[in-house]
Design a protein that fits this description.
66% helix; transmembrane helix; 3 strands; 2% strand; elongated; membrane; cell membrane; transport; single chain; mainly alpha; 3-stranded antiparallel sheet; MetI-like fold
């Protein structure tokens, strides 16, 4: 007897259609496609009709011009939502168990709160706060509740008491030599840090998971060739390649993300390969093969999902390295001086440490706390999502 086809979109059993082989889609994938389409269309409209001279959202009163990196950042945020946040919401019992295990680590819970603040500041801050502007007449303003010798300040914005320029809430963390607000620069630096975190991990995950799973399942000479290529990637001097590209094309955040992510996926590929080999020996994988499932389906439906927890924790522990690398290069003067990153802010204040240490200390503390938070988060996720690794280490 023929079954009646559902008349409404939300009544379609996408999982059943996917398993039948007629359609290999899920609700999450459909949502990703639907929400990504307006972003792609906006990017094309921005590139074709608006150009660089006009702000993207000028028609609604926002002075904000989106670059190519911003569109890629939005795309990675959508990936993060539909393939990490939404699956947790769809599996409340599993999420409750993970959260119970995760919150046992108190430093990790605090770290998660700090990272949420950084994420919210980086995402919403540039929409409500104007970009830091240079005004040398207000350079070296001290932070609120602090004071500095008025002789070191060109034009004190606050009160002068006993020859000391007092800080004001107008510039809560003071200003740089060029008169840029340190607080505003830190907020915009949160955006840069989140772009580095999300985009690099997306590229590393895409390449590393692809190489690792193909190498594990192909075996033989394919495995040998791919692993030797991974050895080359791991031994390649990334800094040398970055300096070469810097000399040819100039500095830029996009170039930094591209170079460092393209040479950082080797460890992920090896990790995914080892996990895939261990998972492939499980009984449910053998049962799937016997039932006639294709290699692609086994990898996509079973291997990758069952190694996802280990991959997530491994990628989380990679992010601090990227943030620290950008700060180090900026401090050495090898980064893009036009981007308001924390590293650039630290670099701008290194010559003023004697009488304006807040320029270096404020972004330095924020960078330190963010890197520490990612490390705590990675360790806690490893214990919560992959308890076998904890048992093996004991």
């Amino acid at each position: 007897m023929a079954t009646k086809k559902p008349e409404r979109f939300d009544q379609v059993d996408w999982s059943e259609l996917s398993e039948s082989g007629r359609l290999d889609l899920s609700i999450n994938s459909i949502g990703m496609v639907i929400t990504s389409l307006p972003v792609v269309l906006l990017g094309l409209y921005d590139w074709r009709f608006i150009g660089d001279r006009t702000d993207t959202f000028e028609f609604i009163g926002l002075s904000r011009n989106l670059e190519s990196l911003d569109y890629f950042f939005i795309f990675t945020l959508l990936l993060f939502f539909f393939y990490l946040i939404l699956p947790l919401a769809q599996n409340p019992r599993m999420t409750k168990y993970y959260w119970k295990e995760f919150k046992r680590n108190r430093p990790a819970v605090v770290s998660l709160g700090w990272l949420l603040i950084v994420f919210a500041g980086g995402l919403l801050g540039p929409l409500v706060i104007s970009a830091p502007e240079q005004d040398i007449l207000i350079g070296h303003q001290p932070p609120v509740f602090l004071s500095v010798d008025a002789a070191n300040v060109a034009n004190c914005v606050g009160d002068i008491v006993g020859g000391q320029c007092q800080g004001t809430w107008e510039y809560p963390l003071g200003t740089t030599r060029g008169g840029k607000s340190v607080f505003t620069s830190i907020i915009y630096g949160m955006t840069i840090s989140m772009q580095i975190a999300f985009i690099t991990t997306t590229i590393v995950a895409a390449i590393g998971i692809s190489f690792g799973t193909v190498s594990a399942y192909a075996g033989g000479w394919v495995d040998e060739v791919l692993m030797r290529f991974v050895d080359i990637i791991l031994s390649f001097p990334t800094l040398l390649m970055f300096l070469l590209i810097l000399y040819i094309y100039g500095a830029g955040l996009g170039m930094f993300i591209l170079v460092f992510s393209l040479f950082a996926w080797g460890g992920t590929a090896r990790y995914v390969r080892s996990k895939s080999l261990s998972v492939s020996e499980e009984e449910y994988i053998k049962a799937s093969r016997i039932s006639g499932a294709s290699t692609y389906r086994v990898v996509r439906k079973h291997v990758v999902p069952n190694t996802a927890s280990s991959i997530i924790t491994q990628l989380t522990l990679l992010i601090p390295g990227f943030l620290l690398a950008e700060a180090q290069l900026a401090f050495l003067g090898l980064g893009d001086s036009n981007i308001p990153s924390w590293g650039q802010l630290i670099s701008a204040g290194r010559s003023d440490l004697a009488f304006a240490p807040w320029i270096v200390l404020a972004p330095g503390i924020v960078l330190f706390l963010t890197i520490l938070a990612f490390n705590f988060l990675g360790d806690a996720l490893l214990d919560a999502l992959n308890p076998e690794a904890e048992a093996e280490s004991e």
